């Protein structure tokens, strides 16, 4: 008798645990994976927040907040006037949304020694962090770190590639 009860109980348990998505779940934004050979999975968004927990305003390409890089001149760590509105917009977002944290990554091009580039990358990250702080962002919301030449945006070895690599990237929790 035990030999019949155990397999029956297991079959019942497995059947109870399985489910199929219904249209109500799909409309609510539940992830649904197609089983017809397609390998796509629907992106889940609830309440204007993406899968990383970021509000849509931070990822909408039409929003200034979707832009996260501040570019610097050669051998400089001064935030250019053309990027002050961008940093100000991020500062406003952070002061209005105290639960979010930001990591500022300072980057350089490949020219210069490793030590020099790490120091310059830190100065670039700190310049953005200081500007955010002066605009009212709490110190515990911002961290700055140098990546030096280790994370190039452009792998090229010319002026335009180097210009893309001289930057500070502003990343929110969930992106780092």
Automatic annotation (TrEMBL):
Membrane topology: Lipid-anchor
NCBIfam families: Pal_lipo
Protein name in UniProt: Peptidoglycan-associated lipoprotein
Ranges of Basic and acidic residues composition bias in the record: 148-169
Region: Disordered, residue numbers: 25-44, 143-176
GO biological process, one term: cell division
Signal peptide: 1-23
Transmembrane segments: none
Pfam families in the cross-refs: OmpA (PF00691)
Source taxon at top rank: Bacteria
Family the UniProt entry places it in: Belongs to the Pal lipoprotein family.
Subcellular locations according to the entry: Cell outer membrane
GO CC field: cell outer membrane
Keywords of this entry: Cell cycle, Cell division, Cell outer membrane, Lipoprotein, Membrane, Palmitate, Signal
Residue ranges occupied by any OmpA-like domain in the UniProt entry: 59-176
Subunit structure: The Tol-Pal system is composed of five core proteins: the inner membrane proteins TolA, TolQ and TolR, the periplasmic protein TolB and the outer membrane protein Pal. They form a network linking the inner and outer membranes and the peptidoglycan layer.
Function per UniProt: Part of the Tol-Pal system, which plays a role in outer membrane invagination during cell division and is important for maintaining outer membrane integrity.
Main localisation: membrane
């Amino acid at each position: 008798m035990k030999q019949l009860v155990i397999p029956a109980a297991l079959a019942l348990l497995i059947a109870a645990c399985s489910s199929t998505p219904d249209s109500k779940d799909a409309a609510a934004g539940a992830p649904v994976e197609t089983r017809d050979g397609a390998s796509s999975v629907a992106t889940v968004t609830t309440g204007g927040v993406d899968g990383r927990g970021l509000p849509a305003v931070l990822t909408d390409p039409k929003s200034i907040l979707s832009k996260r890089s501040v570019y610097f001149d050669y051998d400089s760590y001064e935030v250019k006037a053309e990027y002050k509105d961008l940093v100000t917009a991020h500062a406003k977002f952070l002061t209005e949304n105290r639960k979010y944290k930001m990591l500022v990554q300072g980057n350089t091009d490949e020219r210069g020694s490793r030590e020099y580039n790490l120091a310059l990358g830190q100065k670039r990250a700190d310049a953005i962090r200081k500007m955010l702080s002066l605009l009212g962002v709490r110190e515990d919301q911002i961290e700055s770190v140098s990546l030096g030449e280790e994370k190039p945006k452009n792998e090229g070895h010319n002026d335009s590639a180097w210009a893309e690599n001289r930057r500070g990237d502003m990343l929110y929790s969930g992106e780092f």
